[in-house]
């Protein structure tokens, strides 16, 4: 229950709804008991087990409260009905209907107010989870499956929502219904009620034994839900490859194995959960049967209980069954909810390793240079950068080249603080980037990556990502610089055209030019281009290269290049190998060295 207690903290903003729910639940529980108690004096009158009273009784204090209430109701029935039994019967029926009506109105009002609490908590947990998901560093997701994260924000949160309702019923309405009912039962017959209490602990032990394994089984179900969601996400993301390699059956089998496991786990969980209701009902009826025998002997043989009281008592005893069943279900719900809460809290309590320092500054401009000094970094066990040092002066274009795995993209990840260095420092204008707020640091930078990451939205909204308030004129200017305006004009709704999931309605070159337009509109002083043309055909590459040259004018640019033709005019070319610099200079200087750069150029057939 530890995780579930943490989830209950989300109720705080909605406590007024909780108080209203509790208030109406108290009234519901009270009228649940009263609706049966009201029958006793009236049944006495109807069956002529007590004489009718035509003199108003006098209240003589709490000690005689039970007798006073009975006498008062007797007096009211007698005065209203006189000698007419049918008139008395109509009054009995009307009063019972009225009490049950009030009981159900209070029940509705209790559920009405709890709805706002439940849905409010659901909204707040999801909002906080989503905020946490966007806040956590990229390294967190290299260890997690996306489908598992999706399962936590969907099915796990829903499970918590249902459990919150259960716990509130568990601690308020149902126990109060039982307490009020038992108090009245004691009022009718202490002996009979004590006899009932012999069987209640036995029932509780049986029900608790059934629920012990629920949390473990629920955890398996939630994890498997995340597993098959991950398979769906991977399949949709790589559908072209799946089809191209005729791998449909492989993925279908993989998905079916997961859903089969989910099927088994769910059956086991639900069957155990479903056992709660019939078990508690059977045990309840068993108690009722024993009561009929024991109470019947008190009426027929001992004559210590009259028939009217016994009828009402049996109604009260049966009235305990419904809340008892609800409590047993709520206990199971809480166990399931605790498993879901553990998965949700695991994400919410994950520490963000890349966070602003307490005295972080907001840096609004870039003045002189970016310096990487003795930087070493590893993703896991092996260092991908070793004692790396480099200066990138303002206004210059610095290109990083080398074989795959040499550490080029890692430098971009470190400068933007997607990851933090293990050793050494990175500073901008002499200020360590760890002392600069992440928001202001990334505001100084624009990124165009190899994979054009676009969203299922309009062209305009994709470009406006870094500058939401951009005008139409600014959009057009950015797309013209990015060499994208011509193809945008030919789209059905121009800037307002939806480009589909991941920009699927556009070609690779068009997507990349939109990414460039997005970076241009942001207008940052530092531009990072991570193999921005490597995935394009020759014609698209020329269009994109022109767009990149337009964008890099008067900016500091860090270009990670695979195609060396794109960086011949760079102010400095840094050749990397296994996380270290092996050569650096201009294009012509490096060719003259006849070293690693010359070999790379020769392999790509450039001179």
UniProtKB/TrEMBL annotation:
Compartment annotation: Cell membrane
Transmembrane segments: 20-47, 88-117, 170-188, 194-211, 282-301
Every ABC transmembrane type-1 domain range: 22-336
Entry-linked SUPFAM superfamilies: ABC transporter transmembrane region, P-loop containing nucleoside triphosphate hydrolases
First-listed, main subcellular location of the protein, grouped into a coarse class: membrane
Membrane topology per record: Multi-pass membrane protein
GO cellular component, as recorded: plasma membrane
Keyword terms of this UniProt record: ATP-binding, Membrane, Nucleotide-binding, Transmembrane, Transmembrane helix, Transport
Protein name, per record: Lipid A export ATP-binding/permease protein
């Amino acid at each position: 229950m530890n995780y579930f207690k943490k989830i209950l903290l989300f109720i705080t903003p909605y406590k007024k709804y909780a108080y209203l729910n509790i208030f109406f639940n108290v009234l519901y529980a009270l009228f649940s008991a009263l609706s049966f108690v009201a029958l006793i004096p009236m049944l006495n009158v109807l069956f002529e087990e007590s004489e009718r009273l035509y003199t108003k009784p006098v209240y003589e204090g709490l000690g005689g409260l039970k007798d006073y209430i009975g006498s008062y109701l007797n007096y009211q029935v007698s005065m209203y009905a006189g000698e007419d039994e049918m008139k008395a019967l109509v009054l009995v029926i009307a009063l019972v209907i009225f009490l049950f009506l009030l009981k159900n109105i209070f029940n509705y009002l209790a559920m009405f107010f709890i709805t706002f609490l439940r849905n409010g908590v659901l909204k707040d947990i999801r909002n906080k989870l989503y905020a946490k998901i966007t806040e956590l560093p990229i390294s967190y997701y290299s260890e997690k499956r996306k489908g598992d994260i999706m399962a936590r924000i969907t099915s796990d949160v829903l499970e918590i929502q249902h459990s919150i309702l259960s716990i509130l019923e568990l601690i308020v309405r149902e126990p109060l219904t039982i307490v009020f009912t038992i108090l009245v039962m004691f009022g009718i017959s202490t002996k009979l009620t004590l006899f009932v209490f012999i069987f209640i602990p036995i029932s509780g032990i049986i029900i608790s034994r059934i629920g012990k394994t629920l949390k473990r089984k629920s955890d398996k179900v939630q994890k498997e839900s995340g597993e098959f969601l991950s398979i769906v996400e991977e399949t949709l993301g790589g559908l072209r490859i799946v089809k191209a390699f005729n791998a449909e059956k492989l993925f279908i089998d993989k998905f079916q194995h997961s859903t089969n496991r989910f099927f088994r786990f769910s059956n086991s969980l639900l069957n155990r959960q479903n056992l709660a209701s019939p078990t508690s009902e059977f045990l309840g009826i068993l108690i009722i049967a024993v009561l009929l025998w024991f109470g019947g002997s008190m009426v027929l043989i001992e004559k210590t209980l009259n028939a009217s009281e016994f009828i009402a008592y049996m109604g009260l005893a049966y009235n305990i069954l419904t809340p008892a069943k609800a409590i047993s279900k709520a206990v199971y719900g809480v166990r399931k909810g605790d498993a879901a809460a553990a998965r949700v809290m695991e994400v919410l309590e994950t520490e963000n390793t890349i966070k602003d320092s307490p005295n972080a500054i907001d840096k609004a401009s870039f003045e002189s240079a970016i310096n990487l000094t003795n930087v070493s970094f590893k993703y896991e066990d092996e260092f991908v950068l070793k004692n790396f040092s480099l200066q990138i002066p303002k206004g210059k274009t610095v290109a990083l080249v080398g074989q795959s795995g040499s550490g080029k993209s890692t430098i971009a990840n470190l400068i933007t603080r997607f990851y933090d260095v293990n050793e050494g420092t990175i500073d901008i204008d002499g200020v360590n980037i760890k002392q600069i707020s992440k928001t202001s640091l990334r505001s100084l930078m624009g990124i165009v990556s190899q994979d054009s990451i676009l969203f299922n939205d309009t062209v305009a909204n994709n470009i406006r990502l870094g500058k939401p308030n951009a005008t139409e004129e600014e959009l057009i200017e950015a797309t013209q610089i990015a060499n994208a305006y011509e193809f945008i004009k030919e789209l059905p709704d121009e800037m307002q055209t939806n480009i589909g999931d991941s920009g699927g309605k556009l070609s690779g070159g068009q997507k990349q030019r939109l990414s460039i337009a997005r970076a241009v509109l942001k207008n940052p002083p530092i531009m990072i281009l991570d193999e921005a043309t490597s995935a394009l055909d020759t014609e698209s590459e020329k269009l994109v290269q022109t767009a990149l040259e337009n964008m890099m004018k008067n900016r500091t640019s860090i270009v990670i290049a695979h195609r060396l033709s794109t960086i011949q005019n760079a102010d400095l070319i840094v050749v990397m190998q296994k996380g270290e610099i092996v050569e650096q200079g201009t294009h012509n200087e490096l060719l003259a060295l006849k070293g690693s750069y010359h070999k790379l150029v020769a392999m790509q057939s450039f001179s």
